[in-house]
Structures are given as C-alpha cells and as structure tokens.
Design brief:
Length: 224
C-alpha cells in the first residue's frame, strides 16, 4: 500500500482524538483534526475563527463550503502527500463528496473510514469529564485519566479548562447533529467498502490495538 489516507469519524466523545494522536505518532502521518484547527482559529480570532465561533458555540456544524475550503488547502501541503489521518472531516455527505473528488483529481483515494462508536451514556460521561490544557491542548479526563494535580497539565503545567462546547446543553445538540448529519456517512462508506467499525466503549488501548490490527490486514490485502 503506497499511502494510508485515513478518516476517523464517530459521535462526539467516542475517542477519535485519542486514537488519532496515537496513530499519528506511530504511523508518522499528519493528524488533521478540523475541530482543533477551528478552535485555534477562534482563539486567534482569524476571519475563519470569527465565522466558525457562533456555530461551534451552539454545537452546530460550520457551513460545508467554509470547512471544505480549509481541508482542500490543508491536503495540498507537502506533509499530506504521503498520507493523512483526518479527524472530524468529512462530517456531512457534501463534505465526503468534496473529499472524494479532490483525492480523485490527485489520483488518490481513501484507504479506510474508521468509525469509532460508543453509546450515548458513555460519551456524555466522557465529555463531561474532559479537560484540556490551555497551552498545547493536552487532553485529560477527570473520570478516566485525571491529571496528577487538579486542573493542572502534567506535561506543561498550564491550567486545564473545559471546552465551551462540552457544557451539557451543547453536548445534547452535538449528539443530535451527529445523528442527523454525520451518521449517514456510515452507509456512505459501507457502500464503498471502506467502512471499518471499532467499539469505542472499550479501553483506549484495546481500541487502538483493534485499529492497528485492522490496518495491518488492509496492508496485507493490498499485497495480494
Ligand atoms: P470536534 O473537535 O471534532 O469535536 P467532536 O467530533 O464533537 O469530537 P470530540 O473532540 O468531542 O471527541 P473525540 O471523539 O475526539 O473524543 P476524545 O478522544 O477527545 O469538533 C468540534 C466542533 O467543530 C463541531 O461541533 C463543529 O462545530 C466544528 N467542526 C469540526 N469539524 C467540522 C466539520 N468537518 N464540519 C463542520 N463543522 C466542524 O475523548 C473524549 C474524552 O474521553 C477525553 O477526555 C478522553 O480522555 C476520554 N476517552 C477517550 N477514549 C476513551 C476510552 N476508550 N475510555 C475512556 N475514556 C476515553
């Protein structure tokens, strides 16, 4: 297999970011997370950030044309030419179509769409416990993976805070948006033979081992 072009998708809090960061370190591929890119743009109050902020604060998706433009540019950068791990994009059918068309123009294709799924009860608990450091975005969970000192990042000592869209009323809206706009991608990628499912309710290491085993199988199949 010449390159791994991977998509991670699934409900909020299912563990996409947790798995994506591990995959990025192990596979040495760029980890491209639209949520992180948008939060950075909001923090820096760029034009993109100002446009995205209201949607994100409501738990809604930013418009397709905006995010498609961001990803189209990002995938043209040098580091994405040998593969990538996309987390949080595509999130709608028009986004999936746009990605497919862009890759097709470049003679590339998606290797697999990795669905990390977990029950609603579990993701609500995880999201309520998530804390991120202000400095570098290191992620903790007060229920499952607490920092050594309350509200302080183990890695860089910066304060930990809760994401503004992790408040309960916003989480409810994000879950609705996932069901309405993103879950149709399950059928979309299944029909194309690209869907691989993972039980995100298991421990992070178990989920990761399953993903790695699946990727190894895909690579073997490619050599047949
Ligand atoms: P985004 O940042 O992508 O948020 P999300 O999809 O809602 O996903 P999360 O970051 O909440 O969860 P995750 O699955 O990554 O879980 P994590 O690994 O952190 O998007 C935010 C917003 O940006 C959107 O609402 C939208 O407005 C906008 N946006 C982004 N992309 C867009 C697009 N393409 N189009 C339009 N708008 C877009 O884990 C969660 C917690 O659980 C952590 O604390 C972690 O430590 C813990 N945890 C993880 N795995 C486990 C496990 N197995 N067991 C126990 N705990 C675990």
């Amino acid at each position: 297999m010449s390159q791994l072009n991977l998509i991670l998708f699934g409900p909020p809090g299912a563990g996409k970011g947790t798995q994506g960061k591990r995959l990025c370190e192990d596979l040495r591929l760029p980890y491209i997370a639209t949520g992180d890119m948008l939060r950075e743009a909001v923090a820096n109050q760029t034009d993109l950030g100002k446009e995205a902020e209201t949607y994100m604060d409501q738990g809604d998706l930013v418009p397709d044309d905006v995010i498609i433009g961001v990803i189209t540019e990002r995938l043209q950068e040098d580091d994405a030419q040998d593969g990538f791990i996309l987390d949080g994009f595509p999130r709608t059918i028009p986004q999936a179509d746009a990605l497919h068309e862009q890759l097709q123009r470049l003679g590339r294709e998606i290797t697999a769409a990795l669905l990390v799924d977990a029950p609603e009860e579990e993701v609500i608990k995880r999201i309520s416990g998530r804390r991120q450091c202000e400095e570098a975005g290191h992620v903790y969970n007060i229920h499952f993976d607490p920092p050594k000192r309350d509200e302080v990042c183990d890695q860089d000592g910066s304060p930990l805070k809760q994401r503004s869209d992790d408040k309960p009323e916003k989480v409810k809206r994000r879950l609705e948006v996932y069901e309405e706009q993103t879950s149709p991608l399950i059928e979309y990628y299944d029909e194309r033979g690209l869907l691989r499912r993972f039980d995100g309710a298991r421990s992070p290491t178990e989920v990761y081992d399953h993903i790695r085993a699946t990727l190894a199988t895909l690579r073997l199949e490619d050599q047949l």
